[in-house]
Amino acid sequence: MSKLYVIGIGPGAYEQMTGKAITAMQNSDTIIGYTVYVDLVKEHFPGKEFMTTPMKKEVDRCVLAFEEAKKGKTVSMICSGDAGVYGMSGLMYEVGEKYPDIELEIIPGVTAATGGAAVLGAPLIHDFCLISLSDLLTPWEKIEARLLGASQADFVIVLYNPSSIKRHDYLQKACDLMMQYKSEDTVCGIVSQIAREGEEYHVMTLKELRDTKVDMFTTVFIGNSQTKELNGKMVTPRGYRNV
Amino acid sequence: MSKLYVIGIGPGAYEQMTGKAITAMQNSDTIIGYTVYVDLVKEHFPGKEFMTTPMKKEVDRCVLAFEEAKKGKTVSMICSGDAGVYGMSGLMYEVGEKYPDIELEIIPGVTAATGGAAVLGAPLIHDFCLISLSDLLTPWEKIEARLLGASQADFVIVLYNPSSIKRHDYLQKACDLMMQYKSEDTVCGIVSQIAREGEEYHVMTLKELRDTKVDMFTTVFIGNSQTKELNGKMVTPRGYRNV
């Protein structure tokens, strides 16, 4: 049976990949991914065949991976962060229904939520949610209901895809919704270029976040009612009782 | 300035640690952690000084780490999964207020949610929440509000600490709450001993999950309204529109 790995390479730097991910790529004949991620790893895997497809061609990329594996090659499909968090592993199972002879193995990685949290301090110590603000495949009403539900229940919230050229005001809309239940003084943080050159973070209030411009390489963190700023870091206590 | 690393070692196996975590431990004089996690890594770091403190002595463990660092040693405090997800990094910042000369560096790892998801298939492809069922430091009413809010907003939900000897019926209570908004046929999954010997997973309905006994080494996944079973794997599509 041919083997097809679906690998989360972590937030960017080679040193943030797991040993398991590195071994799988070393054992592969072909490494496939979105151009930017292939460029991040290329130098570390000399002699491999690399294939890329552009953004928004995700189904084509999956089919390509299965077709290469069908030829008898060992193939790695790589994603940034974790392949299972807004990543390719779901689509790989769906496309894989047509390739019953090819076995998938998912290799987890450090996702932007935990990679970014490590830069900001410790914002995710207690219950949290991930919400993507991209309405490409999800109706905005659904995103809105999740922002409100998560705010009302006092979750720490991590926003993926907080902005794009078409959706430049989505973060502002999201902040207005969250402020229906969260104080405007809630401690928040943003991290851009996690574990890559130019990594940057800022800690601020929810009110300040509302008027902050972020790009698509930024991950946004909104604290719960207990989250505080400690020496410039964003820290959520592990519980609601004195420890 | 003395350096103190707070490291997520991933779900268990050495191969699931990141290169950055391994390098930090190699550069450390002393490695500190809960006994079980120190035993998992010990053989890979010969010549290091290891120190352990038992469960529920988390504050003591943090103080120990800072005191050792204060002596001029490079110290690694290790946690399973990611140190920032129900882990020690928050408490380290809080205890660290008394040690302004010691710099903390948080090194992220693969948390049980993404490690377990990779075993189950692709349950976390879309918006999800993590909720701990432990009411040791959180009032049960708060946990209940989060279970209800997350279910109503159709999040995929991951439960940490789903059970203990004292809390043997908490998973059942949680399922009853979630079934107020989620169908009893919602696709769910459980994974125990992620990336360790004896790793096991099962895919089932929410109704079946309600009557399933799990232990404290199990992570529980409850799908959203779109999650399906595909060839025995738990898969959440990446959106709500046809792709």
* Average pLDDT, all residues of chain A: 94
What's the number of extended β-strand segments of chain A? 13
Flag low-confidence runs of chain A: none
Strand content of chain A: 25-35%
State the strand order across the main sheet of chain A: 3-2-4-1-5
- Class per helix and strand makeup of chain A: alpha/beta
* Multimerization state: homodimer
Please work out how many helical segments of chain A DSSP would assign.
8
Helix content of chain A: 25-40%
Whole-Å distance between the termini of chain A?
A: 53 Å
- Largest interface by residue count? A-B, 76 and 76 residues
Structure explained in plain terms:
The structure is a homodimer of 243-residue chains. Chain A is an alpha/beta fold and 243 residues long. Chain A is 30% helix and 26% strand. Chain A is built from eight helices and 13 strands. Chain A has helices spanning 19-26, 35-41, 58-70, 89-96, 112-120, 140-152, 170-178, 206-210; strands spanning 2-8, 30-34, 49-53, 75-79, 102-107, 121-122, 128-132, 156-160, 187-192, 200-205, 218-222, 228-230, 233-235. In chain A, the strands form three sheets. Chain A has a five-stranded parallel beta sheet, with helices on both faces. Chain A is elongated and about 55 Å long. Chain A starts with a strand and ends in an 8-residue tail after the last strand. The mean pLDDT of chain A is 94. The interface between A and B is large, with 76 and 76 residues.
